[in-house]
Structure formats: C-alpha cells, structure tokens
C-alpha cells in the first residue's frame, strides 16, 4: 500500500491511524433501467470494453489500492466475474451480489472486508473515468481525516422549489459542490455510522458520506477535487458522452525503465511496418532493430507495396513470417495528405486518399489477424488531432483519421477473444517528409521529432493497452507522450495551424 504521509496534526481521532490495507469497493448493483439497454449499465461496452472493466482497471492500476471487491446486480454476478477474470485483474478478491439498497450493499461490503482496521473506498462502477489522481488523493486524505468525499463546483445556479415548482431559495453557488465518488473512510468510522443508522427506524440514505454526516456529525468530512470527466452513466445520453470522452482521452503510455528492457522485450520478435521507408515508420524500424527485433519495413517507394492491395499486403506478411516463423507487431504508418476543397478534387485524388488512408489499414488488419493471433500480438494504427473535428480543405483526411479511431476500438473489441491488441497513436504535428511537402518549412521547435513518436509507439507496442488512442505531444518545450493520470483532451489547433501530424 503506497501512500504519502502528511505532516502536522488535525486528525479526526487521537490515536495514530494505522490501516492494515486499502480496499476499493466497486458498487455495481444498478440494473440500468434508465439507460434502457436491457442489461445493467455497468455491462454496456464503451471504447471496446464493458464499463465495469474500465472502472476496475483504474483501481487495479492504483498503487494505493491493495484489494478490490465488486458488488454486482443480482443475476449478473457470473457475467461480471467472467469479464473481470478475462481481464486478468489480480487485486479483485470477490465478486458477489449486492443488496437491495445502496446502504444494504455497503453493509455487505463491510462484512466481507472483515474486522481489520483499513481504508475503504466506495465507488460507483458506472463512473469509469475516475482518475488515478482522485484515488491517490482520497487515500492520502485518510491519514488526516476519517471520511473523505469527492466533489466538483457547480457550474449552474441551484434553485430550491416548493411543491408547486416555485422558487423558494437560491443558495450561494460558491459554497455548493456536485458530489461524485469514490467516497473514502476509515473502516471504524463507516462501521460506527451504520451501527447507529441501524437503530433509526426512519433511516434512508443514497450515499455513505450522508450516513456519516447524519449519525457522526462531529466527524469532519474532507472534500477533495473531483473532475468534470468523472461523470456517472445514468441516462442514455451518458453512454454516448462517456464513449466520446474515452475516444478523446489520452491513454497513459507505460514507459520501460531502461534501454536494456527494450532489448529484453524485443529480442526475437518480428515487426512488419507498412510505410516504413521514411518518417515515423522509418524511425520505428531503426529503433526496434537496435533493440533486437527483426523488422520488415515495406512501402510504395522501396518495395512497391501498396497497403490497399490485397496481394501486396499478403506478400509482405508472408515474407516476414516465412523468414522468422512469427509476427508479433504489425504497424501501419502509411498515409497521404492532400489539401483542397472536396468539390475541387478529381476522382483519382479522392480514390487515392480513401484507398491509402482507410482501405489500406482495413486490408492490413484483415490479413494480419491470423499471424497476430498466434503470438497474441498487436496492430498499431495512426490517427491525427483532426479526427475530433473535420477541417475545411482536409475533409477526407479528417474523415479517414476519425474512421481509424473507430476501427481501432471496434477491432480491439472483436479481437479481445483472440488475445490480439489494437491501438492508435495520435501525434501532434510531426517533422516528416510528408508534412514538409504539404506545408513547407516550419520552425523546428514547433514540431515533434519523428523519433519521439517512434519511441512512444514502441512503448505502446510493448504495453498491454488495447482499444486506446494514445496522444504524443510536446510539453514544456519537450516532446513527450501524454502520461498524466487525468484524461487529457487533444489540443484543437485553429485552421491556420492545421494540427495535422504526418504519417508516411
């Protein structure tokens, strides 16, 4: 259990708090009736995975969390258990049916945890965008406070109304917060609150901090900052909003600790790079080779390989397989950028854009699957910031890049049963020959180096990520992959900046 110990006093109890462990309780008891999809909302797939899997993954990755309990809607426990078992989560200890009410489920969770003094975090399963930062701050706050809530300021004015829907009051907005989860407690505190609640015939509660506030009014409840992205999937529109947030969010890129680890991981592996003659594809080829991988770069200019042609793609994959007996990674950096208004483009240009930028990756994916299935490998595609909104004079380029994001997430879902991962890298404007041809010379300090994007790509290929869009961007003057705990939305440059990364 990794925690930061604050200095100073202000503890809610006199005795030093020494928890034996920290337990995350994922509350998945809802039936999803308001979503209207016929299954509990926590089982609905977003960004290629069930919501509950996304949520549990956050606590699995948090070093502050030791154990995870999942309280599932009755009748769906086996479904949840299959999902979480398949994901390989090591911290999940129990998946059991929840109670009839939220408070019943909390009591059940406390019974399962046992009598030890520990930290307990209760989190809604249908808040899949909770961040590692929020989890960490909740746990750290428990060194000082016995109860912790998560909330964000209200952007709207709140009004109180009577039975006739007439305003009776308007609270001062600066003192109002919108509650989220997790809610975190020292286990003796939440147990005592529920013991007192059990003696109240009028007890009713929808959240656990409310129970502490009512029955232990002398216990301070610390509020830490939540996040706008940490929304709860409740209504049908929420499914679409969260799906879009996942699509826009920058995944965390796992970085290996040293160069020797790259060699250890890559030695003996085979990589095929479509579009490997220059730019990002070339840099990735050279980098992987230096660390022991057998890399087969192909392109129109060097090997006469057209990604949109079935025969060319099959030939490239067959040659690599016959030479090494395996294919672990297939990368598609091939792409073209043609500027101009759609109405002014001739049919040949339109066809070329669509064929190379979209049909090509689809063709590679189709023929790569049997090879990647053997090695439990990964397909890596490339998009651009223009996938989030189409831009004038780049209509087809933007459209094909958006299509690749959807293709990534769909294939990650389809191929999960085969153990094949699919991801998509989204670099900022990158110094490549293709970009230079399209935009001319640009100040070097404003562009990512192709080698930087290649390094981030290699990290993705060696990770367990799947179905993710990984941003690679400049930060503080240095080009780095986005690695913040909070989801980071891609920058939306203006039309004059174009914001288009260059693949090959």
Automatic annotation (TrEMBL):
Its annotated function is as follows: Catalyzes the formation of 4-diphosphocytidyl-2-C-methyl-D-erythritol from CTP and 2-C-methyl-D-erythritol 4-phosphate (MEP).
Q: Where is this site: Transition state stabilizer?
A: 34, 41
Organism expressing this protein natively: Micromonospora cathayae
Quote the protein name from its UniProt record: 2-C-methyl-D-erythritol 4-phosphate cytidylyltransferase
Q: Which UniProt keywords apply?
A: Isoprene biosynthesis, Nucleotidyltransferase, Transferase
- Protein family per UniProt: Belongs to the IspD/TarI cytidylyltransferase family. IspD subfamily. Belongs to the short-chain dehydrogenases/reductases (SDR) family.
Its recorded reaction(s) are: 2-C-methyl-D-erythritol 4-phosphate + CTP + H(+) = 4-CDP-2-C-methyl-D-erythritol + diphosphate
Instruction: Extract the HAMAP family matched here.
Output: IspD
